């Protein structure tokens, strides 16, 4: 049933903070290294890859030795600015180990609302892909946008990854989280929760099953992942939500194996 995933070409991978930072707050270098290895190998297979990475605040907290996520917005922004530079340095180093060039792209979600910005972003991403460079995309946490809900904004790249998929017309969005997929309820709270293998429509019942409460570092939670899936389904595209530990799971997903939750419209 998932055989079609073997032939996808343009892939957006989103990695959450919880896959990049250990529970003790230190950076998961092995996870990042494996991610660089897997994504570079996919590039070597001729696929086009874009990475949407959270983690700036988590990495900033590790660098500045802050143990509690700051509440104040300017402090979050400052920590994110420190962390983003550090995160890119780590990514560059790991990807270069496998001879893969990367580029940093910082976006705000409203790019889709402004035709000029939208086309600038598309042009940049398309050019990078044409040059064989792997874009590493994050939300620009320094740019304040009044309409944004700042309590949700940070660390929640789920929606941004769906927007990026939409902009580049990706064949699939692979969303890596700290959980094996979408369950009938939060499995960290109820061990009898059942994993959905496939979801074709996001309705209110499903949204209610995603309690919205995330991990210590991730802030998006399951609701924002479902909202991203909603956007992807509206584009008649595909999303797979799976556990990013280990990142090699991406190979299994693209081999058509039944891992994680597949979000795919009925008609396709
Ligand atoms: P990430 O940082 O990897 O993006 P989040 O912590 O933001 O991940 O979101 C994943 C978390 O969502 C899970 O660890 C789990 O605690 C929570 N969650 C809430 N409802 C559900 C559900 N129905 N199925 C799976 N996970 C859920």
Automatic annotation (TrEMBL):
Give coiled-coil spans as residue ranges. none
Q: Which Gene3D superfamilies match?
A: Acetylglutamate kinase-like (3.40.1160.10)
Compartments it resides in = Cytoplasm
Q: From the Swiss-Prot or TrEMBL record, what is one GO molecular function term? A: glutamate 5-kinase activity
* Enzyme Commission code: 2.7.2.11
In terms of InterPro entries, this protein maps to:
AceGlu_kinase-like_sf, Asp/Glu/Uridylate_kinase, G5K_ProB, Glu/AcGlu_kinase, Glu_5kinase, Glu_5kinase/COase_Synthase, Glutamate_5-kinase_CS
* Binding-site list for ATP: 14, 177-178, 219-225
Which CDD domains does this UniProt record tie to the protein? AAK_G5K_ProB (cd04242)
Q: In which pathway does it act?
A: Amino-acid biosynthesis; L-proline biosynthesis; L-glutamate 5-semialdehyde from L-glutamate: step 1/2
Give residue ranges for domain Aspartate/glutamate/uridylate kinase: 9-241
Function description: Catalyzes the transfer of a phosphate group to glutamate to form L-glutamate 5-phosphate.
Write out the similarity annotation. Answer: Belongs to the glutamate 5-kinase family.
Stored PANTHER family:
GLUTAMATE 5-KINASE (PTHR43654), ISOPENTENYL PHOSPHATE KINASE (PTHR43654:SF1)
Name under which the protein is recorded: Glutamate 5-kinase
Task: Please give the organism.
Answer: Enterococcus xiangfangensis
